[in-house]
Every structure is written in C-alpha cells, then in structure tokens.
Amino acid sequence: MPPLTPAVVHVLLALAAGDRHGYAILKDVQRQSGNRLRFGPGTIYSTLQRLMESGWVEEAPAPQTDVDERRRYYRLTRIGREALREEVDRLGALLDVARTHRIQPRASRG
Amino acid sequence: MPSSLLSSLEGRLYRAALTLLPAAFRREHGAEMARDFDEARQEADTTSAFWLLRAGISIDLVRTLAVQWVRTGLPLIAIASILLSLALAEGLAAIARRTSVRMPDGLVHEDAVVVLFMAEILVVLIAMTIFISLWVGRLMRHGRR
Fold first, then answer.
1. Which B residues in the span 80-109 are in contact with A, Cβ-Cβ below 8 Å?
2. Strand-strand pairing, A20-21 and A73-76
3. What is the ipTM of this complex?
4. Domain boundaries, chain B
5. pTM of the model
6. B25 at the A interface (CB within 8 A)?
7. What domains can be seen in chain A, in order of their start residue?
8. Most exposed among A22, A26, B31, B133, judged by the fewest C-beta atoms under 10 Å?
C-alpha cells in the first residue's frame, strides 16, 4: 500500500477516536496537528468522499442528541482501521530509521 | 457594515460559490459545507481570525473546485474533444485546399468573406467540441451504471 496523504491520515485518526461529523473532524485535525494543519470543508469532504469510495469510511447514524439534519456522521470501517494501522506501522519504522541516524523527535530530546 | 449583515452576506457568497461544484458532490456534501462555514465563522472571534478564515476558505474552495472537476473527467474529455475537433477541421481544410472557390465578380469586401469563413469555422469547432464532450460524457455515465 502506498503512503497515505496527510489529509487521509488525519481524517482516519480523527475517526479512530469515534464517530464524527465533518466539522468535528475538521476541528480534530486542527488539534492533532497543534494548529499547524487547517483543512477547509472542501478538503475534508473530498477526502471523506474518496475514503467512502474505498470502503474505509462509512456513514454512521447520528446520535439522538444531534437534531441538525444537515449533519452527517462518519465512522471508520474495519478495513479503514487496518489501513490506518499499516500506515502507523510504516511511520513507526520510519521513525526507527531516523533514530538510528540520531535524529530524535523534538519532544524526546534532552 | 454591521457584523450580522456581513456574516449573512459572506454566507450567501459561500453558498453561491458552492453551486460551481459538480452537481453530484454538491448534492452529497454542499449542505454540510455550508453549515461548517457558518459554524467556523461564528467561532472566529478576532479580526485576524476572520481574515485567516476567509483566506483559508477561499484557497480550500478553489482547490476543491479543481479537484472535484478533475475527478469528473470532464476537463480531460473537453481537451480530447478540442483536439479531435481541430484534427477534423484540419482534415476538412486539407480537402477544401484542393478545390478552388470562385468569388463572385465585383466582390468588394473580400476580407469580410474571410472573417465570415473564420467565424463559421470557429462556431463549427465549438459545436463539435460540445457535441463530442456530451457524447463521450454520456457514454461514460452509461458505462458506470
């Protein structure tokens, strides 16, 4: 499987925490990246569209507390979770290679 | 301008811009995008946040328009149609070059006739491009079903 784009990884990570609507995903991505990534609605829904076509994400029923009909909820499918796990493994292996070259993530330095 | 009026104007402008998206994507996610825009606008609480939001949303919209239209395949079909139309026009021109056209005697505005021919060719090219694009687009839609 080729490496996933940052938008795909962030959307999958947001959905790994539970069912989300588009705007919640958008806010989650912002939080995950420490405000460095700010995807707009177009990027989020284009990514969700591709993920739904691939069968990695599916629509989920809205919780009863949400009365806004314009909100649609999305959730990760089993193969979506598997793809995310593979990507995390790939990134982990990359991090190991970086460590062997004495390139440490900033947070763990010193 | 009062902020509520500006907010409503921007909301309408964003919704109007969403109509430029391909119909299928707009039907699927247009309402969600409009709602997200409203919510993001309500959350922006400082002037710099407003400008950051406006810039981010504008770039996002332009990118989404490009991505979604490319995904429909229509730009590729249009380019292929233009190339095909030009090839056909070139073929017709090659045939026309072998035949001699006699202009009526005493014709004063020969340049006008040339312009008229060129305009005619342009109209034919545009018509052929539209026809081929629609025809191929229809074939592709049938193929997907």
1. none
2. antiparallel
3. 0.81
4. 3-72, 74-144
5. 0.75
6. yes
7. 6-102 (1.10.10.10)
8. B31
